[in-house]
Design brief:
Elements (H helix, E strand, L loop, with lengths): L5 E5 L6 H15 L6 E5 L5 H8 L4 E5 L16 H6 L4 E4 L2 H6 L4 H13 L3 E6 L3 H5 L3 H12 L5 H4 L3 E4 L13 H19 L1 H6 L1 E5 L7 H5 L6 E4 L6 H8 L2
Parallel strand pairs: 1-2, 1-8, 2-3, 3-4, 4-5, 5-6, 6-7, 7-8
The structure holds 2-phosphoglycolic acid.
Length: 250
């Protein structure tokens, strides 16, 4: 079954509204008419209205890097899914390794966020991946299994269709080290097998699994060209329009 690739830009805590608008204004003409892949930008919450407005009517979707699972309430510093939708955001990252590492996000929290995103019709990109120690001690398969199982608690096959997974080996994020295409494909197969156990072969076959971790214009083709790899989640190399364009057009 052909899975349409998704190429996603994770801008992390970079760009002002003026810089974000300048990016979108420069980027849209570069990818106008590009329908082979889906494209999505993930800016900081304060940039969302600007980026949504600038990308309106284009082939570029906009989402959040993080959302809270509650509908609303006394959660200082957080953003609800309702707020994201109200400004035109359609996607959200969930459980990025930086959220797990610096903001103590657990698989249980990831699961709550995933359930909330699905309930509200926001496309979730659930991030999983092992740290270097776990890879070197031969624990990658176990870690991925635990993360996928934890994230997917109470998810039924009927609910699961919109879910996208991003496999991001933590040792490859922002380090310039990438998993080789074969390594990434192997991890993707493990993840897909886990999803098949939980939700059945058909859902697993249709689920997009992106690769993230030092994706650059010069390695994008080899990575996304793997049959198992259904797109990319790009950090550093997504900050400049021409660099991200090259990855989109891998
Ligand atoms: P990177 O980040 O491309 O800069 O390694 C990827 C990510 O954290 O999603």
């Amino acid at each position: 079954m052909a899975r349409k690739a998704l190429i996603a830009a994770n801008w992390k805590m970079y760009k002002t509204p003026a810089e974000a608008k300048a990016f979108v204004d420069a980027f849209l003409p570069l990818v106008a008419g590009h329908t082979r892949d889906e494209i999505a930008l993930f800016p900081s919450p304060v940039l969302l209205p600007t980026v949504v407005e600038a990308a309106k009517g284009s082939n570029v979707a906009v989402g959040a890097q993080n959302i809270h699972f509650a509908e609303e309430g006394a959660y200082t510093g957080e953003t609800s899914i309702g707020q994201l939708k109200a400004v035109g955001g359609t996607h959200t990252l969930i459980g990025h390794s930086e959220r797990r590492q610096y903001f103590a996000e657990t698989d249980e929290i990831v699961n709550k966020k995933l359930l909330a995103a699905l309930k509200h019709g926001v496309v979730p990109i659930v991030c999983v991946g092992e740290v270097l120690e776990e890879r070197e001690s031969g624990n990658t398969a176990n870690v991925l299994k635990t993360q996928v199982t934890g994230a997917f608690a109470d998810i039924t096959p009927e609910m699961a269709k919109p879910i996208v997974i991003a496999y991001e080996p933590v040792w490859a994020i922002g380090t310039g080290k990438t998993a080789t295409p074969e390594m990434a494909a192997e991890a993707h197969r493990m993840i897909r097998a886990e999803v098949a156990k939980l939700l059945g072969a058909e859902i697993a076959e249709g689920m997009r699994i992106l690769y993230g971790g030092s994706v650059k214009p010069d390695n994008a083709t080899a990575l996304i060209g793997q049959e198992e790899i259904d797109g990319a989640l790009v950090g550093g190399a997504s900050l400049k329009p021409d660099s991200f364009e090259k990855i989109v057009k891998y």
